[in-house]
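# step 3/5: fold
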Amino acid sequence: MPVEGKKKDTEEFYRELQQSIDKIPKNENIILAGDFHGRIGIQPIPECILTYGEQVTNHNGEALRDCYAFNELIAISFLTIYILCLCR
């Protein structure tokens, strides 16, 4: 998992995650769960992130938001644990 303040580690984590997602057939659903150490803020991404949550955004949160948007993931948050659901 990425650690805040270590941008290279975060970038490598999401690069490897994307490579793994790319290998999954398009007709399969994906559920990822864990603490991604990301604060995603309240700026909505249609079909991905709603406007609830805290106002703070950090580097890991920005990377997480990019992952949501690129892969059309739906964000579900339970306090600091994010579950990323991909329904294609």
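# step 4/5: annotate
The first strand starts at residue 30 and ends at 34.
# step 5/5: archive (pending)
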